[in-house]
Structures
1.
Amino acid sequence: MKSGSSKLNAAWHIAHPMPKNPSFEQRVKWHLEHQKHCGCRKISGKLAEEIKKRNKILML
Ligand SMILES: [Zn+2]
């Protein structure tokens, strides 16, 4: 198996499906985990703002 060439972490996605009707909070949490493990999706809009805030807190 090759490593480092794919940005999609399929195994992570299988283990962490997005809830069917996610609340804003659920989406934030999902994307926070997602960006740590996988780079297949960019975050935009309000969600990106919220995640930036939380990343700052996490990095302190
Ligand atoms: Zn992904």
2.
Amino acid sequence: MATNARPKMILSACLLSKYLLKYRLKCPRKITTSPAKEERMPKLGYGIIGCGRIFPFHARAVRKLPEVELVAVSDIVEERARKGAQMFGAKAWYTDYRKLLDRKDIHLVSICLPHHLHAKASIDAAMRGKHVLCEKPIAINEEEARRMIDECRRRKVKLAIISQNRYNDASQKLYKAFQEGRFGRLVLGCADVKNHKDQSYYDRDEWRGRWATEGGGSLTTQAYHIIDLLRWIMGPVRSVCAHMATLTHDIEVEDTATATLEFENGALGEISSTNSSPIGFSTRLEIHGENGSAIIQDNRIVYWDFPGIPEAEKVLEAHLQIGSIPNRGYGESHPRQIKEFVRDVLEDREPLINGEEALKTSRLIWAIYSSAKSGRKVYLTKGGGDA
Ligand SMILES: NC(=O)c1ccc[n+]([C@@H]2O[C@H](COP(=O)([O-])OP(=O)(O)OC[C@H]3O[C@@H](n4cnc5c(N)ncnc54)[C@H](O)[C@@H]3O)[C@@H](O)[C@H]2O)c1
């Protein structure tokens, strides 16, 4: 059977069982889908490539989804692959990810590899008809990102890139306020990351700290999410003026950077990011419009001020722990994005954060590098890299 036919078959099974359940609610005569039949409903096979730090976030999410089964995992470090499979109940593990990709019972894969391997592994997966969910950033340069996007299109498989922070309750609430026009004209957007990474963080994994393998430092790896949120809400960036420095680490890439931005809509913005702060983890996104302001800190709304909100409510909203997202670390929204990716495959929908969308955030980061290296203002292509 063609790999792409299977998701459609499973979707039909899902829709049928949904219909039966709905009918049962309305019908006085009990029509039940027998548990035995439900258990036999075919699941999509899922594979995860790379069993490092982010791996458990994918594996846990996959395990919770009834439509998929974690079939196999892969890591070049044998122990990580074996332990990863054991811990999350995968049938198989491999040190060569191509063996995982060769399995006919795997339809979707998460790529949780170092940045320079995203393009190669995604293309290898697409060539074998697998739908790809790749960790951020899409790739380490434009050319590799384009090849990933083109190959996935050619092979008619989905490509989605992780940006789980867009799925946090606080970000969703902020985006909704923007969509409803509550800010009025946007005037200023600020994104800040103050992070602490000591030298051992870079020494532990060989791929970190190098342009050729990590593709950047604090901006690419730590500030990526907050920059993505800034761009998502404020819109395309017209130009960038930036500085960067490597201040407290023995690495090639930046550990500290600042940038000022002009958005296409005329608003201004700033980004600052460091891995050299004594503060463990702190991210802050400020969106200011002519009519209102909102601030998210560490995945929580800490300030929320719009006309018509009574003073007491403003305080209440600002301090409300929006959702149950822990306010530190990676957040807990991987399951939401992974669930959506599985639905995208089942329902043949284009992922919201597809290759092109993720590339826009990477282009902005690359423009910051380009400005910092050249000492010049860098103009993004028409549409702020959104072209
Ligand atoms: N979305 C987030 O919040 C978030 C958080 C952390 C990391 N990440 C991203 O996840 C990705 C991985 O980061 P990490 O922190 O887990 O890194 P990591 O170094 O902990 O894990 C990478 C794993 O890939 C394995 N690997 C390397 N080459 C391989 C190959 N050819 N085949 C199979 N396995 C191979 C390594 O042995 C390692 O176990 C990166 O893109 C990173 O930016 C995202």
